[in-house]
Design brief:
five-stranded antiparallel β-sheet, about 425 residues, 8 helices, about 40% strand, 21 strands, alpha+beta
Length: about 425
């Protein structure tokens, strides 16, 4: 009987999650300012010390094919665009600007909608320390005449104090010249699929004229702030820039956190940076397995919670995978749709319901994660008799209603009647 009840709950939650998937997507889109495809390119600046008082900022503009309008031309498709990169002082005075006018031609229509295939442009900007800057990327589709604009702030104030570190850069192998060593391209280290034998980490900074030491520490599934490499040097040049190779075996978790410590005499500086890997069977919204495990508390059975509590950190990623594998509605495919939908909802509530605590920990977040967007939301207004504000969420398909009361008038909504939740999914 108990097994039948668990199976019923399992099916019920799957239905709830998938039945509201379209509504979720619509609600997510309408909650944000609508952006055209031409605005959906990537702007990424990478700083590297090149002199005692200046920095080279290699700025990339990555243009996904789907951001442009392709026109059919005989047996192929072609898109024309103009791209530009510029840098200016925070007060608005432009320092440099580079513009490209180019086209992309493909044979398959599916390529025109690809978010993975892209065209890259980059520019080098050498700028002095001690100031704030803004890099700007602009993309114009020459057929539709639509424009997209992105800006990134860069702060080099305080780097005159020595020793000081710039943000480290992860470098992957790719034939060509990408502004750094030949055959090396910088990456933001986010959801990387292939790393080959390993990854280079470019570490640069500014130092005084005496000896210094740099240590690299790693935290992931098998390491806890463990020293993995170190190097030393003399600061007679006033700066340093080193490429340190980190073997692929060190990147054994989805999320790998690095801490880089620069010590010179009694002075020190440090930077932190993360490298996340893509793994088949894991949601694109999962960046940290330990946090994701906590966010699963609404659907884990008591036995699974005990199992999780009794396992060490090294086993949690495999345990997480197993938990979701048995919940996968299409185990023959690489993607776990149920996991994807669940953590997409977690992402949504963290963006929209976070205030006193993370959105997924709030009462509204819990209900949204389990049931999706409500079919109807009723809101009350405070009156002379009653200053309490309520939200009433109605779910027509499953005949459920949840009443949330604003505890203090500042958006801290709590369920009027406690919801025990599901004992397992």
């Amino acid at each position: 009987m108990e097994k039948a009840s668990m199976k019923h709950k399992h099916i019920l939650v799957i239905i709830l999650i998938f039945a509201s998937g379209i509504l979720f997507s619509q609600r997510l889109k309408s909650s944000k300012k609508s952006r055209s495809n031409v605005e959906k390119f990537i702007l990424a600046p990478f700083p590297d010390a090149v002199d005692a008082d200046s920095v080279k900022v290699v700025t990339f503009m990555e243009i996904p094919y789907y951001s442009l309008q392709f026109i059919k031309k005989e047996s192929s498709y072609i898109a024309y665009y103009q791209a530009s990169l510029s840098i200016r002082h925070s007060r608005g005075n432009e320092i440099n600007n580079i513009t490209w006018t180019d086209s992309i031609q493909v044979d398959l229509y599916t390529d025109t909608r690809s978010k993975m295939k892209n065209r890259k442009h980059y520019a080098d900007f050498n700028i002095p320390l001690g100031k704030k800057y803004e890099v700007i990327g602009e993309l114009q589709d020459l057929d539709t005449r639509k424009k997209g604009l992105l800006k990134k702030n860069i702060d080099f104030k305080g780097l005159e104090k020595k020793p000081s570190l710039l943000k480290p850069i992860f470098m992957l192998d790719l034939p060509g010249n990408w502004g750094f060593n030949a055959g090396k391209i910088p990456t933001r280290g986010f959801r990387v699929r292939e790393i080959g034998l390993g990854v280079d980490m470019k570490i640069s900074g500014f130092v005084a004229e005496n000896d210094y030491e740099v240590s690299i520490y790693l935290t992931n599934g098998t390491a806890d702030d463990s020293l993995i490499q170190k190097f030393s040097g003399n600061g007679k040049l006033g700066y340093f820039s080193e490429n340190i190779f980190i073997p692929s075996g060190k990147f054994n978790s989805i999320k790998n956190d690095f801490r880089i410590l620069l010590v010179q005499g009694e002075e020190k500086d440090q930077q932190e940076i993360s490298f996340t890997r893509y793994k088949p069977g894991f949601s694109g919204y999962v960046y940290d397995v330990e946090i994701a495990m906590k966010q699963m508390k609404y659907i884990l059975s008591n036995d699974e919670k005990k199992e999780l509590k009794n396992n060490n950190k090294q086993d949690k990623e495999q345990l997480f995978y197993q938990f979701w594998k048995k919940r996968d509605p299409t185990p023959e495919t690489e993607q776990n749709e149920l996991m994807e939908e669940y953590f997409q909802r977690v992402e949504y509530v963290n963006e929209h319901f976070s205030d006193w605590q993370q959105g997924w920990e709030t009462d509204r977040g819990m209900i949204y994660i389990l049931f999706g967007p409500p079919d109807e939301i009723q809101r009350t207004n405070p009156s002379a008799r009653n200053s309490t504000i309520y939200q009433i969420w109605n779910y027509v398909k499953v005949n459920k209603q949840f009443v949330f009361r604003d505890q203090n008038g500042f958006g801290d909504y709590r369920l009027d009647t406690p919801f025990i939740g599901f004992s397992g999914l």
